[in-house]
Amino acid sequence: MSPAAAPLEPDPMTLLPPERPVQLLDDEGALHEVDGFPLDLKDSDFRDLYRYMVLARRVDSEAINLQRQGQLGVYASLLGQEAAQVGGAYALAEQDWVFPSYREMGAALVRGVDPGSVLHLFRGTWLSNHDPIATRFGLLSIPIGTQALHATGYAMAAKFDGKDLVVMSYFGDGATSEGDPHEAMNFAAVYDAPVVFFVQNNQYAISVPLSKQTKAPTIAHKAVGYGMPGFRADGNDVLATYAVSRRAIDRARAGQGPSLIEAVTYRMEAHTTADDPTRYRTASELAEWKVRDPIARFETFLEREGLLDDAFRAEIDEEARGYATRMRAEVYDAPHGDPLELFEHVYVEPPERFDEQRALLRAELERRE
Amino acid sequence: MSPAAAPLEPDPMTLLPPERPVQLLDDEGALHEVDGFPLDLKDSDFRDLYRYMVLARRVDSEAINLQRQGQLGVYASLLGQEAAQVGGAYALAEQDWVFPSYREMGAALVRGVDPGSVLHLFRGTWLSNHDPIATRFGLLSIPIGTQALHATGYAMAAKFDGKDLVVMSYFGDGATSEGDPHEAMNFAAVYDAPVVFFVQNNQYAISVPLSKQTKAPTIAHKAVGYGMPGFRADGNDVLATYAVSRRAIDRARAGQGPSLIEAVTYRMEAHTTADDPTRYRTASELAEWKVRDPIARFETFLEREGLLDDAFRAEIDEEARGYATRMRAEVYDAPHGDPLELFEHVYVEPPERFDEQRALLRAELERRE
Amino acid sequence: MAITLAQALNTALHDAMESDDRVVVFGEDVGTLGGVFRITDKLQSRFGDQRCFDTPLAESGIVGTAIGMAMYGYKPVVEMQFDGFTYPAFEQLVSHLAKMRNRSRGTVTLQVVVRIPYGGGIGAVEHHSESPEAYFAHTAGLKVVSPGTPSDAYSLLREAIDCPDPVIFFEPKRRYWLKEDAQLPVRTEPFGRAVVRREGTTATLFAYGPMVRTCMDAAAAAEEEGWDLEVVDLRTLNPFDTATAVASVVKTGRAVVVHEACVFGGFGAEVAARITERAFYSLEAPVLRVGGFDIPYPAAKLEEFFLPDVDRILDAVDRSLGF
Amino acid sequence: MAITLAQALNTALHDAMESDDRVVVFGEDVGTLGGVFRITDKLQSRFGDQRCFDTPLAESGIVGTAIGMAMYGYKPVVEMQFDGFTYPAFEQLVSHLAKMRNRSRGTVTLQVVVRIPYGGGIGAVEHHSESPEAYFAHTAGLKVVSPGTPSDAYSLLREAIDCPDPVIFFEPKRRYWLKEDAQLPVRTEPFGRAVVRREGTTATLFAYGPMVRTCMDAAAAAEEEGWDLEVVDLRTLNPFDTATAVASVVKTGRAVVVHEACVFGGFGAEVAARITERAFYSLEAPVLRVGGFDIPYPAAKLEEFFLPDVDRILDAVDRSLGF
Ligand SMILES: Cc1ncc(C[n+]2csc(CCOP(=O)(O)OP(=O)(O)O)c2C)c(N)n1
Ligand SMILES: Cc1ncc(C[n+]2csc(CCOP(=O)(O)OP(=O)(O)O)c2C)c(N)n1
Ligand SMILES: [Mg+2]
Ligand SMILES: [Mg+2]
Hints:
heterotetramer, A: alpha/beta, Rossmann fold, 2 domains, about 45% helix, globular, C: alpha/beta, five-stranded mixed β-sheet, 14 strands, binds thiamine diphosphate, binds magnesium ion
């Protein structure tokens, strides 16, 4: 068939993100509907979204405290990205999966993963301490972008198995430069796998700004090259990140394949507690984003709608304090585990030499006493 | 700055390939000008393009013969891709570079690289036998897509050095799935490097058809995600591949950065001489492409223009025979080189143990005698 | 019945897919084409294209999606088309496939087999003849297997697919056409057991994969010299059968380790160091190593000078006896 | 003047860039930020952003473009941010950086240095504490270097940048803050020369990179036991200084090789096998190996149980003496 003959499939125009990020709440917290992204939320949902964002921020600041107190080796804050994380994860169904990077404490919360358990990676007690299978929340993934392939593989499996299940894979703007997310998006599209690639574009990869990361018009435009739609959301508008995720998830669930979401947001904190952002970004840039605070904006909306009263605030406050207390209790001075457990989980069927090495370590431990 | 405020840069609409591949010669060999892709060719150029295509085909069929005669271990034919390779390479200037895959005998010819020397890789005499620096034609690259990064690095260097130099990187449709071409295109765009990524979309990666390789509307659409223009050419129309390359090369030379070209063509032969394509494609598909033969089409055009006469045909025939003779002379029964050369080129400053290993090999060689 | 090593592998895949529908096979060209070596021949027509399928050209993608599928509960058996094309997947292999179970404190088990046709001797072009087994043997969390006979090819592949730990399965491509009289299905010794392929007293040759045959030939040729060589087929590099290796050396007092990979930093160093640690007083000579030279794999016409052969092995035996 | 190993590296980069404007430095966060360990601090402000620049987040991209730039004639010094993030670049490192010169019959020379902060002991999260040197030592065509002192850090890095062959330069990140009185610029022994850091007679400890300091501590502690240990700093793994290693063992009769990487298939196996081949009759005991266990690098709180320390080293010496 002559290459000139057939119309293009899929029609590229249907893949392009809208000119501007989807925004449902303006800067004054007023709601404006956007074609194609209807809101299906009840008042209780609005309150839940708020609750999760506030909890995420509190859990996050508690983690930073714990790091400052020497309780965690390092920690990667989500400050400023609450709406991006919560909106996306909230749109998932019970049976769905999340494959996170290392910055997704907000998504973890929404998915019911105990923040204290996740912190063990950063404390260094264990490499992880939650059950990914039971929580349907993958292990925090440090090698950038690699989890996107696991997400795709999981989604392919679910599809082959005829299961009603959608997978959300979070990664950062920097991750889009790596080969793995590229391969993941291509595989997902080829197999029509039910994955949503959720990029939190927080403008930086450690010190490297987006402008040095890519020349693409937007990250969402990268979807075109995989033949899947690219969506763009104001990442500091939780209703926008929710509505865009809703659409992408519904598509995936309906068997229409993967899509890419770019949530345009900003990392208000240092890259991690080990980082010094004053070396690469200006106070004025920070100030510009501060006024776009995702929680403040949503608060204005809730207040307008009469959904935020002191009782509810107090309730969240109480809950947040509970989280913080449990987190502290979990990691504060948590002793390292039994060093002999080091040999337990490497293999189901370990090689014989593990016995010798275990014995060596046991002898060393005895000598220490 | 609010993400909603600024206009997108670059404007995505300027990156999208045209709806249909650029075609200058219709199936009847009639020339139709296409906006934005003017032809700057003289009669002698038309004749040269033809000459290179015919030579490429003859050199190719000679290589296949040599393989059948047991003179080459394997060979990857370019049959059907003459226009794609020649049109692209012909648009380069003297000082420009080519980073090929393993199928670019046509591009090699245009760049003045002796086909016999290139065949040593396939014969197995040496891993290569041409000087990439002197010929500005990189080593044939077997690991798929990896050379795209070398091309980008070379172009970055030339740019940093203020040199007027464009780099063309060839790879296949299959290669677009690998991480390396992705990273290469991204780097090239970020650094505005003067590279042209020239994809010969010959519809297959060994047995895997394009439809299983990607869901993108076209390969050229992948450019959008890197913020560079994607061009599409009828790959069996040498004037189209030339004109599109001309534009991409001129852009790069003018400091406007990289671009991606998809030449839509077809691999008429097996993947390599080791492959059996009857296992995965139909005779009717082959027949459909046979009528689109790039040389036949251009011949019709030249005849219309009165540029093709028997004398010229005879001249090319003579030249082709010369090539074939030299190729045969070069590889036929070419003895393996001195095994001791194995230790010569690994390092400029080899480790001491090479002396022992050389001595070991020398002793083995003596025992063989 | 005489079967080839390639047939044994194909049958093993077939039988594993037949007996467990969670076993899925994927990679480049493994579906319609049946693989460039036809090891996956007819699996797609027999089991359908959700059980055996072609992927886009991306090795990291293949291994990374295999990990996701294994997390779901499938048992992927994926192919890297050639040894030299395993490297794009290196991060997924080393940072995830090897480590996920440990990192998850045992909650995630990755039952994945990565098949790699490896080694030289078939006159192939560059990157098609490498022996990267040392990279994976040194990677904690992986198991590394390499059969040297058709029976072992069948049995070890079945065991690899059944193994709850991730397995890198190195197929000696130059031995795909090696024949053996065998009745499939066959079960041979399990992972972690080396096998004495030939008893002897003069010295022990250690080998795995393609070099097992070469060592048997060397042992046969050595008879002329009056040497009675023992040949031990290691079969699984990790787990490693230290006991069998040491017992052989205790008996013979001398050992030569043979592989195609470069000697420097190769797996032979581990075998030599390990045996020496445990059989020090039995050794009459240092354990010697025979392998490729410390250079990149050469062009096809020169591979005969690079690869260990009977002569190079017997020369090493001679040196061992000279100690 | 007391300088740290980190300062020595920074000064070496500075001096190399000063003396040759074809030297360019790039990688993730090496420009504006000056690197996460500040090894490239101030290079961008001093030399401009065409000589020191940040790249997109893609290690294969970094190494692959470095190869292209080197073909043009630049001398790239690139950074892999941490050991565990070298793996995405593995194909470019193994299939191209290592092989290009050989493949081109000497017409293409790749003067590239790949800097890798490696090893543990700093309480980092996963993938930030690995010791992958064995992978590269086994890869023909590369040189592999790892300094253990500030002077060597300076000198070996300058030599690496001047070296016409590609060099994988492993920086012992836990020793970045190690101090030494030294006057820069300093030139120490060249590639391929091991150095006896401490003379002794009881047994030899072999180490490189981060374990040099630990072995010196072990030797000091051993005095209490009445043991007089020799410490050999290997410095460059490839080329390897067999002569110095063998001479030391001929003198002491006993050897322990120490590294952080897992013992199984680690570089210690090469050292042990090599020494044994050449000093067989001088050995009173097998060369013993001390390293990390054959498990993935553990969580930070447990790394002290994984890493070789003075106790584990002296225990091995004790076992060696028990032979
Ligand atoms: C493969 C790999 N390379 C480098 C790193 C070191 N590193 C950790 S986070 C980071 C930046 C990530 O940026 P982005 O993807 O935008 O995510 P963000 O941290 O902004 O959420 C880098 C380079 C890594 N973890 N993995
Ligand atoms: C990294 C890598 N993986 C796999 C292969 C094996 N292989 C050789 S050619 C090929 C198909 C390439 O297809 P495409 O990029 O379309 O180029 P074409 O051969 O069609 O010109 C494959 C899979 C390889 N050479 N390198
Ligand atoms: Mg970011
Ligand atoms: Mg192709």
